Amino acid sequence: MKTAVVILNWNGKKLLEQFLPSIVNFSINQAEIYVADNASSDASISFIKQNFPTVKIVENSTNGGYAKGYNDALQHINADIYCLVNSDIEVTKNWLTPILDTFKKEENTAIIQPKILDFKDKTKFEYAGAGGGFIDLYGYPYCRGRIFNNLETDNGQFNDTTEIFWASGACFFIRSKVYHQLGGFDEDYFAHQEEIDLCWRAKNKNFTIKYVGNSTVYHVGGATLQAINPQKTFLNFRNSLLNIVKNVPTKLVFFVIFSRLVLDGIAGLKFLLELKPKHTIAILKAHFSFYANFIKFLGKRNKLNKKDNYNKHTSIIWQYYALGRKKFNELK
Q1: Any idea which of 142-156, 199-213, 227-241 has the lowest mean pLDDT?
Q2: Which 8-state DSSP code applies to residue 306?
Q3: Same structural domain, 99 and 57
Q4: What is the radius of gyration, based on Cα positions, of the chain?
């Protein structure tokens, strides 16, 4: 099973200096390693050539973000399994083995995520993916080990292998034939939640998505776009709404969209009360962008086979804020 570990880079020389060695050291003999460079203006390319001659480089002509960056690069990479890795990921010894074994044993498993812990505090799960992702009734993503900003301590509670709804783009394994069958990432997302859309589309094609907890990586998180950056707020709110239009079953889609408009308005007020007006403005911009893209995404929706395959019986906002359930195993 030919495997390619592909690291997307944009002006990330410092991150490559810190994190590329672990990937090279712990992937030898199991995978070819690529850096997909999004038209960096720093010394990333020369650094790789001088220090890691075995690492192959794919140079994209523009910085198209996460979605277009990978779509462009993967056209030039021949492999059975793509492992898409953020440039701020540290991997561990034998991290590839349990995941590749799962692909070999389970033909219908198309996408896999490892356990993702916080590089800054390796006892904690990391925000972007943690122990595998799910979607609630209103299209809000949450994870085993992470509900909103509440991060659980890793006590081995998620050392299992189990089916999930979405896998984190921070460390995302996918069969190449499935990636291309689905048309890759939707480039209209630019960045954030495009992996949720891809997983949702895979689910709608009856593919299985798995979390493999005996493979561990550590993620810095926010290394390329800080969590406090309003642009991240904009992308997350807008792309979450686009996911709903594109993927939620017809009988629920307009109810969910209306509910989200109300809930996002409350989130905007919350940011104001917290003296974070830039994030309130980002939510407003997200909604205007959503309205501008609504018809376009309805057209994309018509090409998909949508199914009731997400958790439409759970409101993560209600459980977290009203009922105080802040750990995955407390959810009903």
Answers
A1: 227-241
A2: -
A3: yes
A4: 19
Residue 47: CB atoms within 10 A of its CB come to 17
Domain end, chosen from 188, 219, 250, is at: 219
* CA angle in degrees (0–180, nearest 5) for 8-131-110: 60
pTM: predicted TM-score of the whole model, two decimal places? 0.92
161-177: burial string, b at 16+ Cβ within 10 Å, e else = beebbbbbbbbbbbbbe
Whether residue 291 is found in the same domain as residue 176: no
Q: What is the DSSP string of 158-210?
A: T-SEEE-SB--TTEEEEEHHHHHHTTSS-GGG-SSSHHHHHHHHHHHTT-EEE
Q: For residues 258, 140, 83 and 76, what is the CA-based torsion angle, rounded to 10 degrees?
A: 20
Residue 225 lies in a domain: no
Q: Is 109 helix (H, G, I), strand (E, B) or coil?
A: strand
The per-residue pLDDT for range 14-38, each reduced to its tens digit, is 999 999 999 999 998 899 999 999 9
Q: What is the pLDDT of residues 303-320, one digit of tens each?
A: 676 666 666 668 999 999
Q: What is the pLDDT of residue 138?
A: 92
Whether residue 224 is contained in a domain is answered as no
